[in-house]
Amino acid sequence: MKPSQNARLSVAPMMDWTDRHCRFFHRQFSRHSLLYTEMVTAPALVRGGAVHLLDHDPAEHPVALQLGGSDPRELARAAALGWQAGYQEINLNCGCPSDRVQSGSFGAVLMEYPALVGDICAAMIAASPAEVTVKCRIGVDDQIPQEVLPEFLDTLGKAGVRRVIIHARKAWLQGLSPKDNREIPPLDYPLVVAMKAAFPQLHISVNGGITSLVLARDLLDQGLDGVMIGRAAYQRPADILQDADRLIFDDMGQAQDAFGVLEGMRPYIQREMSRGVRLASITRHMLGLFAGKPGARAWRRVLSENAHRAGAGPEVLDMALAAVQAAAMQPSAD
Q1: Which of 1, 34, 206, 249 is the most exposed, having the fewest neighbouring CB atoms within 10 Å of its CB?
Q2: 132: which residues sit within 8 A by CB, 6+ positions away?
Q3: 136 a catalytic residue
Q4: Distance separating alpha carbons of residues 205 and 7, to the nearest angstrom
Q5: Which residue ranges make up each domain of the chain?
Q6: What are the pLDDT digits (tens) for 11-66?
Q7: How many angstroms separate the CA atoms of 230 and 225, rounded?
């Protein structure tokens, strides 16, 4: 399957969330959905030598690397390092509105500098065979999305970019927190659909506010090429990813339920712990495994209270699973 086909459904890059343990966990649910790393800054890789940030398990594929930065030469070098580390897609962050990102003159602020973004993308494309993609907003601050977004996409296309993920909200660089920027600016899915019609040569995915596979299918049916889901996939992974292969990719193979995923994680947890990884570093991403199901609260409680303790091991999973099964015998418990 080509990367663009995997991009029919993807899990968004989310800082402090979509690390390698999270991605391995998500892969247990879906064979086809495209996964993304947390944003890795080009300065950290090129100037800081932090190439360990590129570590990942081959089982995570298809997985893409998201980079942050604003210097074309530095990003080109970072893209080359990403390709060498095994990533076949390198994504440029033009959508994050956080103050920390703005202080580095990248993220959503790049929406104000389309020519620079074009230079960055051209440099990244020239640096390696990896597919270069861009994740952006529909605009920032007082920009008029209907005017700036077509110009931005045109610039990307001329630079050689063929795939774009559009978060269907403006970003306000001043006055709103990153959390507020995910919720307050209104969503404009019709504008993203219109951009697909205006730029049929681009593969366009939509992101923002998508909380179910039903909505994802509806957006695909409107002509979009892909849908990216963020927080819902993290907080309710079974709801979003368990049926993704069947409903989005027409793969009728056996899907893993939450119990099957848990069993699939055990060898990985044992291996990672033998390398010095703490149990909580992995299980913190698994708190939503039973979200919406009987025993979910008991599962979260046992993991939250015990996984971080010194010496905690796989027996904590057994305790949490037993709590789920006991709570499931009492439907009113959750």
Answers
A1: 1
A2: 79, 89, 90, 91, 92, 121, 124, 125, 160, 161
A3: no
A4: 8
A5: 3-247, 258-333
A6: 999 999 999 999 999 999 999 999 999 999 999 999 999 999 999 999 999 999 99
A7: 17
- Domain 3-247 shares a fold with domain 258-333: no
| Token code pair at residue 277 | 């990884």
Give me the catalytic one of 22, 94, 96, 136. 96
Q: What does the block give as tokens for 42?
A: 């080009």
Q: Tell me if 234 sits within 8 A of 256, measured CB to CB.
A: no
- Number of helices (H), then strands (E), belonging to the chain: the values are 17, 8
Reported as a pLDDT band with limits 50, 70 and 90, residue 333 is very low
Mean per-residue pLDDT, 87-99: 91
**Planar angle of CA 233, 54, 161, nearest 5 degrees:** 75
How many of the other CB atoms lie within 10 Å of CB of 257? Answer: 12
Q: Give the CA radius of gyration of the chain.
A: 20
The CA dihedral of 189, 7, 238, 68, to the nearest 10 degrees, is -80
CA 118 to the chain's CA centroid: 23
Contacts of residue 53, Cβ cutoff 8 Å, sequence gap at least 6 = 40, 44, 45
Q: Under CATH, which number does the domain 3-247 receive?
A: 3.20.20.70
> In the structure encoding, which two tokens stand for residue 98, read together?
């956080």
Q: Which of 79, 47, 44 is nearest to 64 (CA)?
A: 79
> 150-163, pLDDT tens digit by residue?
999 999 999 999 99
CA distances from 260 to 256, 289, 321 (A): 5, 11, 12
Quickly name the fold that domain 258-333 has. Four Helix Bundle (Hemerythrin (Met), subunit A) (1.20.120)
Which pTM value belongs to this model?
A: 0.94
